[in-house]
Amino acid sequence: MIIPANVILEISALCNLSCLGCALHGPHRFVTRSPGNMNEDIWRVVINELGSLDQKVMLTTHGGGEPLLHPALRDILRYARTFSNLEIGFLTNGMLLDKSWSDFLTDIKLDWIAFSIDGVLPETHDRIRKHSDLKRVEKNLDTLLAVKRRKKSVFPQIRLNMVAYDEIVDQQEAFVEKWIHKVDAVMISHYRQPPESKRWPGITIERKPCNLLWYQAVVSWDGRLALCCEDFNVDFSPGRIGPGNSLLSLWNNEAMSRVRDLHTRGDYDQHSMCCRCDTWAEDYSRQEYFDDERGFRVVKTPSQTVYSREPE
């Protein structure tokens, strides 16, 4: 049986923003599935199953929406934290992460949290991330940093992600310099516009199998298993979690095995999504080095560049 090392649990597909590149809520959105919040009979079953495993699993409680909009997020995180083999974190737009959340996430020792912040100027950030407020997001981030200092805690690790849209690509260096010495990692992600493009720039190597099919399981808010994180609309689901259908049974069923077989044989063109997707290259086109001049580590993949501080 194949066991995923990473599980994305989309606890909410609702959002309070409308960001430029978002497939679900943005101005160019193309996802047709309905949004909603995950019911307890799904998230508790999945967490129980993962927590019973003998291996470490990274549990990511975000997806196509804003996790802080789920009214039971505190209960979900508390419950997941009771299992020692789970590493837990999520991505947020930061608008709702007030001091009470900062205290809570620090107290439960959440492993990591990532903020989506696009650039350093409010006039471009707030236009790209419609309904967001850069000053408010930065204030919430500063509050979390202050709470961590006051409690002398390393939890949660704080990561920032900026999408290098054409309008703000010239802000990426300023973004890195502003935050690299305050947070644990700063990520600059390339921009693409699915469904027209699932391509990343600069890939010159020969096509290889996508490791996501063996590594990452994605559960949508309504309990359907997606093929992977690129299956935005859950068009290629092998089934829904429920009585008689556990996460692992679905992830190892015949439908998933057929897609893995296509990749193993190199028949990528036989799958309508995989044939036009470059996410496979993440694990094969990776560069890592230490920038001695600036004093931080750099990891480059086709989709993003990650800057991180050395552990103190």
Walk me through the topology:
Elements: E1 6-9, E2 18-19, H1 40-51, E3 57-60, H2 73-81, E4 86-92, H3 99-107, E5 112-116, H4 122-128, E6 129-130, H5 134-151, E7 157-163, H6 172-179, E8 185-189, H7 212-215, E9 216-219, E10 224-226, E11 239-240, H8 247-251, H9 254-265, E12 287-291, E13 296-300, E14 304-308
Parallel strand pairs: 1-3, 1-9, 3-4, 4-5, 5-7, 7-8
Antiparallel strand pairs: 2-6, 8-14, 9-10, 10-11, 12-13, 13-14
Helix pairs in contact: 3-5
Concise summary:
The chain is of the alpha/beta class.
Give Rg in angstroms. Answer: 19 Å
Could you give the order of the helices and strands? Answer: EEHEHEHEHEHEHEHEEEHHEEE
Structural class: alpha/beta
| Main sheet attributes: strand count, strand direction, barrel closure | 12 strands, mixed
The end-to-end distance, rounded to whole angstroms, is: 39 Å
- Counting H and I runs of at least 4 residues, what is the number of helices? 9
Give the proportion of residues in helices.
25-40%
Report the average pLDDT across residues. Answer: 95
The total strand number stands at 14
What fraction of residues sit in β-strands?
15-25%
Largest beta sheet: strand ordering: 11-10-9-1-3-4-5-7-8-14-13-12
Based on CA inertia axes, which overall geometry fits?
globular
Enumerate the spans where pLDDT stays under 50 for 5 or more consecutive residues: none
